[in-house]
Design brief:
heterodimer, A: about 120 residues, four-stranded antiparallel beta sheet, 11 strands, about 0% helix, B: mainly beta, seven-stranded mixed beta sheet, globular
């Protein structure tokens, strides 16, 4: 059974870079079988897809975030990561990592981690 | 970008009611439409993929239909555990988008 767990700072200052890691168990992040991604949810609002990464390095980003987002797959640990630069209060949200063998949806999700952008 | 619009944004219903939620895409997405259920403080759970394919373990009272631009999620007889927020998501484009969500509340 695939399990995912987000980790990273819960508080980030405006203009700084948000960095989160997703640790995967039950599968290898380097497997060509799986697709990985990030989704966020501002408090009281709907879900927003951030981006997806596939083994081999193919990445797809939300156009509204593309200039600030970088997804990567860890080489030495079974992890993949999200970096979001130049954050503002509007980036305050619960961030979920997710994955699947399908490239069309996510069945496996982390529990989510709240990141607050505040000085 | 493909925009996804759900209606209604919220609804109140009673146990046993039939509930219908609509999701409309800004352009044709064939059947690349998925539905998720989310309970407070929890991650979304995939219910239906490809517009009408029920995920394993999901009760048969849930069903999905539609293709092109208009899609529907139906709960045939609402149960207490179904009170939650439901989200549609398109994967026709390599850049996915979600609807704004529909909150199903107890009447």
């Amino acid at each position: 059974q695939l399990q995912l767990q987000e980790s990273g700072p819960g508080l980030v200052k405006p203009s700084e870079t948000l960095s989160l890691t997703c640790t995967v168990s039950g599968a290898s992040v380097s497997s060509s079988t799986y697709y990985w991604g990030w989704v966020r949810q501002p408090p009281g609002k709907g879900l927003e897809w951030i981006g997806s990464i596939y083994y081999g390095g193919s990445t797809y980003y939300n156009p509204s975030l593309k200039s600030r987002v970088t997804l990567s797959v860890g080489l030495s640990k079974n992890q993949f990561s999200l970096r979001l630069s130049s954050v503002t209060v509007a980036d305050t949200a619960v961030y979920y990592c997710a994955g699947d063998t399908s490239g069309y949806y996510y069945r496996y999700w982390g529990q989510g981690t709240l990141v607050t952008v505040s000085s | 970008d493909i925009q996804m619009t759900q209606s209604p944004s919220s609804l109140s219903a009673s146990v046993g009611d039939r509930v219908t939620i609509t999701c409309r895409a800004s352009q044709s997405i064939s059947n690349y439409l998925n539905w998720y259920q989310q309970k407070p403080g929890k991650a979304p759970k995939l219910l239906i993929d490809a517009a009408s394919s029920l995920q394993s373990g999901v009760p048969s009272r849930f069903s999905g239909s539609g293709s092109g631009t208009d899609f529907t999620l139906t709960i045939s007889s609402l149960q207490s555990e179904d009170f939650a927020t439901y989200h549609c998501q398109q994967s026709y484009s390599t850049t996915w988008t979600f609807g704004q969500g529909t909150k199903v509340e107890i009447k």
